[in-house]
Design a protein that fits this description.
seven-stranded mixed beta sheet; single chain; 7 strands
């Protein structure tokens, strides 16, 4: 087993890796967001992963653009009246602490017990800006998640769901099942997801995905339908933003790397690599 395999032990370690990139962006004078908790959350392991994995720092621009777009879509939904945020596979996200959020907002984070325990330890002396609850749950347990969705649907009149960095580890069948469960839950109105095209999925599987697969974090989801994958499962794409186009607009993309595929709610042509963030809205009549 090589050194990179020892560093990335499981899917939870990818959260430390992402936190490292948020820490790096925070240090910039022109930062697109500031996360003063990211360095502590990344810890030594997060820094080691980024600087030991082959090309571990190569796609920093993509992680930064993804965080920025999730922030943007989330703030839009909160301003539009969302009163409960459900963050699925929340990882080491510190938005309840770092963003300007009304103290009346309910925020529920869901993730595996190990990452929840680690996060609570690191942030035990910090106070979130809203009402925060953490739930230890394996989201592949369909019965358990449906029970949670049912409970939370009765707590908020307008729920916005986030799943940053989650769906790519699910099979298309598993994503469809999750989408159906969320669509059938009462008062769930919007869902923010990140997506990769089939071409991008193949590229990731050949590069960083090799090391992550050996740690049990295999890349699986890159729908040819794009954001329209979710339409039969109760969700309509409302807005779609590509990571590369966003990064280029803020001078974060690598030199010479420019977007060639338009941001679209539908299929990505051919095997073009594309990643983006999508704001989905529940379809009329999709509730049970």
């Amino acid at each position: 087993m090589n050194k990179s395999n020892l560093l990335v032990r499981n899917v939870s370690d990818t959260a430390r890796w992402v936190a490292y990139f948020r820490a790096r962006e925070t240090q910039r004078p022109d930062a697109l967001f500031r996360d003063p908790y990211a360095e502590r959350l990344a810890g030594e392991r997060g820094f080691q992963i980024a600087n030991t994995l082959p090309d571990g720092n190569k796609h920093e621009w993509a992680w930064v653009a993804r965080t920025y777009l999730f922030d943007t879509f989330l703030l839009r939904e909160l301003q539009d009246g969302a009163c409960l945020v459900l963050n699925l596979a929340a990882g080491l996200d510190a938005r309840p602490y770092r963003m300007e959020i009304s103290p009346t907002v309910d925020w529920v984070e869901v993730d595996l017990p190990e990452i929840i325990a680690y996060k609570e330890e690191v942030l035990e002396d910090e106070k979130p800006k809203c009402q925060l609850q953490r739930v230890s749950l394996d989201l592949s347990d369909a019965e358990a998640r449906r029970s949670l969705f049912l409970e939370l649907g009765g707590r908020g009149k307008k729920v916005v769901v986030m799943s940053e960095g989650l769906l790519i580890y699910f099979t298309p069948e598993e994503v469809a099942s999750l989408a159906d469960d969320l669509a059938s839950a009462e008062n769930y109105r919007s869902w923010i997801v990140d997506l990769a095209s089939p071409g991008q999925l193949k590229l990731m599987q050949r590069t960083t995905g090799v090391q992550l697969s050996e740690a049990g974090a295999t890349f699986k989801f890159g729908p040819s339908e794009g954001a329209n994958f979710f339409v039969p499962h109760g969700w309509e794409p409302d807005d779609v933003k590509g990571l590369l186009r966003t990064a280029a607009a803020f001078k974060r993309s690598p030199s010479g790397l420019l977007p060639v595929v338009p941001d679209t709610k539908g299929a990505i042509p051919g095997n073009f690599p594309w990643t983006g963030v999508c704001l989905l809205k529940k379809r009329d009549g999709s509730e049970e």
